[in-house]
C-alpha cells in the first residue's frame, strides 16, 4: 500500500532528525581532530620542534661563513641563500606556533556536550534565509574557536546569548513545519534541508580526510603508537637534536676561525 503524504512527511522528518544528529557528531569529530592535532603540534614544538629551528639557524650561519670564505664559488652562494630561506621559514613557523593560544590539555565530556548543544541550536543548516544562515555561520565559528581553546564557559555564554536574542523568538517552532503550510510544501522544504545536511556531511568528511592525510597528523599517529608501546620517541629525538646542536656550534666556531 502506497504511503500517504502525511506518512511520507513523518518518515522524512525522522530521517532528517537522524541526519542532523549525524552531522553534529561529525562536526564534533572534526573539531576534536583539529584540537588534538593542535595539542600534539604544541607538544612536538616544545620538545623537539624548537631544536629544529635552532639547527636551521646554525646551518644558515655555517653556510654564510663558508660562502664568505669562497666568494667565487657559485654553489656555496646558492647553498647559503637556501639555508637562510630555510632558517627564515623555521623561525616563522616557530613564531606562529608560539603566538597561538595553547589548546586545552584535556577535552572533557562536558566540553563536548557544550559544543554539541551549541551546534544543535546554531548550525547554519537550520537557517531558512541566507542572512540567518550567515549569522549562524559566524556564531559557529566562535563556538569552534572556543572549543579549540577548551573554553566551555565561552560556548555556554554563546548559547545563552543565542537563546536570548530577540531574533530567536520567531524560531521557537520549526518554521518548516508550522501548521498553515500544506503537506506538499512541508515535504519540499524538508527535502531541501536534508540536501543541505548531506552536502555539509560530505564537506566534513572531506575535511576530516584531508586532516588525517596531513604530515602532522600522520606524525602524531606514529608517535602516539610508539608511546602506547612504552617508547619515548620525542624524548629520544630531543637528545639526538641536542647532540647535533652541539656539533653544529663546534663546526660554526671552526669555520669562523678561518674567516
TrEMBL record:
Q: Which residues form a coiled coil?
A: 194-255
Q: Which UniProt keywords apply?
A: Coiled coil
InterPro entries named in the record: DnaJ_domain, J_dom_sf
Concerning SUPFAM superfamilies, the annotation shows: Chaperone J-domain (SSF46565)
Q: What is this protein called?
A: DnaJ domain-containing protein
From which organism does this entry originate?
A: Candidatus Nitrotoga arctica
Amino acid at each position: 500500500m502506497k504511503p500517504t503524504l502525511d506518512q511520507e512527511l513523518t518518515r522524512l522528518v525522522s530521517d532528517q532528525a537522524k541526519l542532523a544528529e549525524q552531522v553534529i557528531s561529525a562536526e564534533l569529530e572534526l573539531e576534536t581532530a583539529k584540537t588534538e592535532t593542535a595539542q600534539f603540534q604544541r607538544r612536538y614544538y616544545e620538545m623537539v620542534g624548537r631544536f629544529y629551528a635552532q639547527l636551521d639557524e646554525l646551518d644558515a650561519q655555517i653556510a654564510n661563513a663558508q660562502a664568505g670564505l669562497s666568494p667565487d664559488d657559485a654553489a656555496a652562494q646558492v647553498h647559503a641563500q637556501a639555508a637562510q630561506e630555510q632558517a627564515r621559514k623555521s623561525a616563522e613557523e616557530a613564531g606562529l606556533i608560539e603566538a597561538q593560544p595553547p589548546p586545552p590539555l584535556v577535552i572533557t565530556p562536558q566540553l563536548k556536550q557544550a559544543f554539541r548543544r551549541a551546534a544543535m541550536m546554531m548550525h547554519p543548516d537550520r537557517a531558512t534565509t541566507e542572512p540567518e544562515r550567515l549569522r549562524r555561520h559566524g556564531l559557529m565559528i566562535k563556538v569552534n574557536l572556543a572549543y579549540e581553546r577548551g573554553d566551555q564557559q565561552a560556548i555556554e555564554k554563546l548559547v545563552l546569548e543565542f537563546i536570548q536574542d530577540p531574533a530567536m523568538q520567531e524560531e521557537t517552532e520549526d518554521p518548516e513545519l508550522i501548521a498553515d503550510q500544506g503537506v506538499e510544501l512541508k515535504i519540499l522544504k524538508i527535502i531541501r534541508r536534508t540536501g543541505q545536511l548531506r552536502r555539509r556531511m560530505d564537506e566534513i568528511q572531506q575535511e576530516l580526510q584531508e586532516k588525517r592525510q596531513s604530515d602532522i597528523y600522520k606524525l602524531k599517529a606514529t608517535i602516539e603508537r610508539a608511546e602506547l608501546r612504552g617508547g619515548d620517541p620525542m624524548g629520544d629525538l630531543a637528545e639526538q637534536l641536542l647532540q647535533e646542536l652541539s656539533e653544529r656550534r663546534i663546526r660554526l666556531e671552526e669555520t669562523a676561525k678561518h674567516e
